[in-house]
Amino acid sequence: MKPPLTLSSSADLDVDLDSPLPDSSLPSSSSRASRHALLLLEKKLKHFEEAKKKTERFHKHLKQQFLKEQERKTARWKKASERFEKSLEVFSRKSGKSSVPSAGGLSASEGTPLEHAAATDGEGTKSHI
């Protein structure tokens, strides 16, 4: 067992108080930490840029898909409107009526919707012009 260290026994240690302290590893660890932090920031930036590109590509794809679907719907509605107008023509020929209302709901003799609105009074009945 070693005797406890006392003030008088500390003089027995070979310590030179005037010698400079050994080089600390603090500056090099500090630079390593800053380099590590910089690498982490670069990785985060790269990940962010990749995610941004991926999101932009996905948004562009969805936009194109939406526009194509709208074009398909418009074409489908146009075909349905044309079929409806043809069936109205057939029906009018069978019933003997000469004027067939267009898809807007006005016959050719009534003109544009604005003219139709101008020709009606407040109660919706036609006034003679």
Q: Could you please describe the fold and organization of this structure?
A:
The chain has 129 residues and is mainly alpha-helical. Helices cover 63% and strands 0% of the residues. It has helices at residues 7-10, 26-95, 113-119. The termini are far apart. The model has no long low-confidence stretch (mean pLDDT 75).
Low-confidence stretches: none
Distance between the termini: 127 Å
Main structural class: mainly alpha
The outline comes out as rod-shaped
Percent helix among the residues? Answer: 55-70%
The number of E-state strands comes to: 0
Largest β-sheet summary: none
Radius of gyration, whole Å = 45 Å
Mean pLDDT, as a whole number?
Answer: 75
**What is the strand content?**
under 5%
SSE order, one letter for each helix or strand? HHH
* Number of helical segments with 4 or more residues: 3
Put the structure in a nutshell.
The protein contains three helices and no strands. The protein is mainly α and 129 residues long.
Notable characteristics:
rod-shaped, 3 helices, mainly alpha, 129 residues
